[in-house]
Write a structure and sequence with these properties.
By secondary structure, the protein is an alpha+beta fold. It folds into two domains: about 60 residues, no CATH class; about 40 residues. It is about 40% helix and about 25% strand. The chain is built from three helices and four strands. The protein has a four-stranded antiparallel β-sheet with strand order 2-1-3-4, covered by helices on one side. A hairpin with a 2-residue loop joins strand 3 and strand 4. The termini are far apart.
Length: about 120
């Protein structure tokens, strides 16, 4: 069974100039007095940030609580597709090299096929 603990999370806006960003948890405090102190003048244009009580769960030695998952934008999606293609290409290459070794090709033969001088 996992342990649970009450805590206080301070929230503020990612755009401290105009408040057009997103709200995210920036501090997790054991005491409400700490949360109140950290929230003073910590939000948009020096206004006080908000806080609320939450329940943390301990898994192993680590406490888990609220997080803010940033959604990808279109550029991130394009970059992620490129990363997936790179990983797929590397996996295919590694499998082909393993198959070549199992077929009895020497490292020199494989290097010659890949275009790398031994």
């Amino acid at each position: 069974m996992s342990e649970k603990m009450a805590a206080f999370v301070c929230y503020r806006n990612s755009d401290l100039n105009e408040g057009r960003g997103y709200t995210y948890p920036y501090a997790v405090c054991r005491n409400e007095s700490t949360a109140r102190r950290l929230c003073v003048k910590a939000d948009v244009q020096g206004t006080d940030a908000s806080y609320r009580e939450v329940e943390l769960v301990k898994v192993g030695p680590t406490w888990f609580g609220p997080v803010n998952v940033i959604q990808p934008n279109k550029a991130d999606d394009i970059a992620e597709d490129a990363i997936r293609r790179e990983k797929t290409a590397k996996l295919r290459k590694d499998r082909a090299l393993d198959a070549a070794r199992k077929a009895g090709l020497s490292e020199d033969d494989i290097a010659a096929l890949v275009g790398v001088a031994p």
